Amino acid sequence: MTAATAQPALPPIRARRVLPGFTLSLGTTLLYLTLIVLIPVIALILKGVEMGPERFWRIVSSPRAVAAFQITLTAAAIATLFNAIYGLLMAWVLVRYDFWGKRLLDALMDVPFALPTAVAGLSLTALFSANGWFGAVLHPLGVPVVYTLLGIAVAMAFTSVPFVVRTVQPVLEDMDPALEQAAVTLGARPWTVFTRVVFPAILPAWLAGCTTAFARSLGEFGAIVFIAGNLPFRTEIAALLAFIRLEEFDYNGAAAIALVLLGFALVLLLVSNLLQFWASRHREAVR
Amino acid sequence: MSITIAGMTKHFGQTEVLRGIDLGIEKGELVSLLGPSGSGKTTLLKIIAGLEWPDSGRLAVDGRDWLGLAAQDRRIGFVFQHYALFPHMTVRDNIAFGLTVRPRAERPGNAIIAARVDELLRFLQIAHLAGRFPAQLSGGQRQRVALGRALAIEPKVLLLDEPFGALDAAIRRDLRRWLRGVHDETGSTTIFVTHDQEEAFELADRVVVMGEGRIEQIGHADVIHDHPATPFVARFMGATVELPVTLQAGRAEGAGLDLAALPRRALPDGPARLFARPGDILPIPDVSGPWTVVTRASTGAELRLVLTHPAVGEAAADVPRRTPGSAGLVPGTPVRLLLEAGTIFPAARVTPIAANPTHDLDRKEARP
Ligand SMILES: Nc1ncnc2c1ncn2[C@@H]1O[C@H](COP(=O)(O)OP(=O)(O)O)[C@@H](O)[C@H]1O
Ligand SMILES: [Mg+2]
What we know:
Shape of chain A: globular
Number of strands of chain B: 20
Structural class of chain B: alpha+beta
Structural class of chain A: mainly alpha
Number of helices of chain B: 9
Order of helices and strands of chain B: EEEHEEEHHHEHEHEEHHEEEEEEEEEEH
Radius of gyration of chain B: 25 Å
Distance between the termini of chain B: 35 Å
Strand order of the largest sheet of chain B: 6-7-8-3-9-10
Largest sheet of chain A: none
Oligomer: heterodimer
Helix content of chain A: over 70%
Order of helices and strands of chain A: HHHHHHHHHHHHHH
Number of strands of chain A: 0
Distance between the termini of chain A: 31 Å
Bound molecules: adenosine-5'-diphosphate, magnesium ion
Number of helices of chain A: 14
Largest interface: A-B, 22 and 35 residues
CATH class of chain A: Mainly Alpha
CATH superfamily of chain A: MetI-like
CATH topology of chain A: MetI-like fold
Shape of chain B: elongated
Strand content of chain A: under 5%
CATH architecture of chain A: Orthogonal Bundle
Strand content of chain B: 25-35%
Radius of gyration of chain A: 24 Å
Largest sheet of chain B: 6 strands, mixed
C-alpha cells in the first residue's frame, strides 16, 4: 500500500487500488520495454536518418535488395496463407475432438517455438532434399523444394504455425456451446453454424494470429538459410541480405534493409489492430 | 402439439441424470419443470429439443417419433439459461437468424423477413433496440431478444430453461406475466424450467416437480402445496420442519405437539414423520410444554423462532409479529406446538437420519 495508509493523520481522499505495487510494476515494465524494445528501434531509425533519404533510397531500391524484399514477402504470404487454414483446422481439431494422442499433438504444436531454428532448418533441408523422405516423392513430380521460394515458404510456415493455433485455440475453447446449440435449434445446418456463428466469434483472434505469423515469417532467418540456398535474386531473403551487408562492414546497408523490414512489421501491426477492431466492434458497450 | 415422454433414462459417465421419466403434455399447455439444481431439468429439455439423446425411452410429438428427427427439423423454440445471443449480430439479425438460415427454397424474401422481425420487435416492446448488439443490452432486454429469436420461426413447442434466472425480482415478476401473455397469444405448447416455486406456480397450468432424475409429483399449484406426494416434495415446498410422530387409528401424536387440526390419514399405526412449514407452527406458552424457545429474531412482519426439545432436537416456527401472545415468546419460555397444517409420511425404517443421504431414504419410503 502507499505511504498514506500508514500515516496516523487522516489520509487524503483519493481512489485507491486494490492491488498494491502498481507504480513499481508499471515502472519496471516500462523500463524494460524501453531498454529491450524501444532503444534498439530508435537506434535503428537514427541510423537511417543519419544516412539521409537519398542514400537510404539508393540502398533499398538496388535490384538485389528489391528482389530480396519480393522473395521475403511472397514466401511469407504463401506461408501465412497455409497457416491461416492449417492452423485454424488444427485449433479446431484440438478443441473439438477427443482422440488418442490428442495431448501429444497439443504439445507438439509448441515444438516450432522451442526448437532452435537452425535445427528446424537442417531437418527440413534433409527431408526435402532430392533424396530425403519428402523430396524423394516431390522431386519426381517436378516440385523441387530445396533451394526454391517454396522451400523458404515451408521453413516460414513451420516456424510460424503455432501463432495461429495458439491464438485461436483459447477463444474456441471459451466459446459458449449454447451459441451453436441455439443456431441448431433455429434450423442452421453444421456449415451454416460454422460460417455464421463460430467463425465470426474467432475471427479477431484468427486475424491476430495470422498477422503475427506473417510478421514472424518476415523476420525468420535461422530455419530459412539452410533450405533456401541463398542465391541472390533467386532465393535470398531480406534478413540474410542485411546480415551479408553487416559482414561486409556496410553498416548503412544493413540498417537500411532492417529499417524496411521494421516498416513492414509496423504496418502489419497497424493493419492487424484495425482489422481486429473492426471484427470485434460489437464488443464495445454503450457508455 | 402434444408431447409424450415414456421411460426416458440418460446418464453422463457415472451420473444417472434421468432415471425413468414418464410425462404427457397437452397441446397448448404451459408446464413448469420445477426442481433443485442438478435434478436433470435442463437435460430433459435438451432431449426434447434434440440437443441430447436419451439412453432409452420414447419421445413422441403429436404421435410422431421425435428421437429420429434432427434438432434442425423439430422446429422448437429454445430459450437458453444465459440467453446465448449471437454476440456479433445486432438484435435485428439475432431475431432474423432462424428465418435467414432456411434452405433457399423455403426461405422467405428479405422484405418478408424484415416485416416479421419488425412485428416481433413491436410485440416484444424492443423496437428501439433493433440496431444494438447484445453487449449493449440489459438482462431483461436480452431475455426478450432471446424469446423473439425463438418465436421468429413460429415454433409449435417453446422450451425455456430458467429464462429469468439471472434477473432481479421485480423484472422477473413483470416478465412472468408477460410470458404468460405470449404463450396464450401464440398458442404454443410451452415447457418452462425453473427452480423457483413461486415462478412455477404463478405461471404454469401444471407443475412437474423433479428430484434427482425422477418426477416426484405432477399437479396444480394448490395440490402440490397442500398435499406433497413425497417427503422430497414436502421439503422442497418449504416444509423443512421434520418431527417424529406416532400414528394411531389415523391420528398422529407427538411429544408436545397439538395435532388436532390435521386430518385423519389412512396410514398404518406406528412411527411416522410429520413435515411442516415453519409458518404453520404456532408455539403456545405452556409451563408443562417440553419445547423451549431458544432464539427469537424479527423480520418486521414475522418473528422467526427456534425451538428445542430435549429428545427431538430443534424446530423453526414463523409467527406473525402482531399475533396476540407473541410478545411472551422470549428465549427460555416453555411451549407446546400447535400445528395448523402438515403432511405425514410413514417411517418405514428406523434409521438415524443424519447417517443417511436423506434423498435416497425418502425415495424408498415414498415408493413402496
Ligand atoms: N454434458 C454433461 N456432461 C456431464 N454431466 C452433465 C452434463 N450435463 C449435465 N450433467 C450432469 O447432469 C446432472 C443434471 O444436470 P441438469 O440437467 O443440468 O440439471 P438441472 O438443469 O436440473 O440443474 C448434473 O449432475 C450435471 O452435472
Ligand atoms: Mg439447468
